[in-house]
Amino acid sequence: MAYIKLDSSKLSKFVHENELAEMQAMVNAADDQLRNGNGAGSEYRDWLELPTKYDQDEFARIQKAADKIRSDSKYLITIGIGGSYLGAQMAIDVLHNNFYTRNSDETQVIFAGNSLSSSYLSELLDLVGDDDFSINVISKSGTTTEPAIAFRVFKEKLMQKVW
């Protein structure tokens, strides 16, 4: 397994060299506990194996759904609040630089359901207009007010479009 290496050459303005040396023992102990599963929370280490061990059938289903959304939709309305949607937002942010401008033929991911702003939903409905869109609801309970309202609004719009 490859290890992460720290290039400390740029830290000298912020951290004294002796401080790094003093922290090394704690870093080694934390690394040992994480890798060997002998520390607090060791039952939650499954993420360490994600790059190599994952449900490949589920991943194939996700890829197929993503391909369909990209081919069928101008917009992907991702509905959620707090931690439910922040993973999706983070993934988009990490994959693009701060000044990314999407190509006009790419599906645009837009977030909704993270506030009770009626003007935001109204403006989003205007933006989507008659274009094709998909909905992705990310919710642990399905009962949080803000996502529930946004889902009902876009479900209704989708039903009007289809029927």
From TrEMBL:
GO terms for cellular component: cytosol. InterPro entries: G6P_Isomerase, SIS_dom_sf. Its EC number is 5.3.1.9. GO terms for molecular function: carbohydrate derivative binding; glucose-6-phosphate isomerase activity; monosaccharide binding. SUPFAM superfamilies: SIS domain. Gene3D superfamilies: Glucose-6-phosphate isomerase like protein, domain 1. It holds the Pfam family PGI. Keywords: Gluconeogenesis, Glycolysis, Isomerase. It comes from the Bacteria. GO terms for biological process: gluconeogenesis; glucose 6-phosphate metabolic process; glycolytic process. This is Glucose-6-phosphate isomerase.
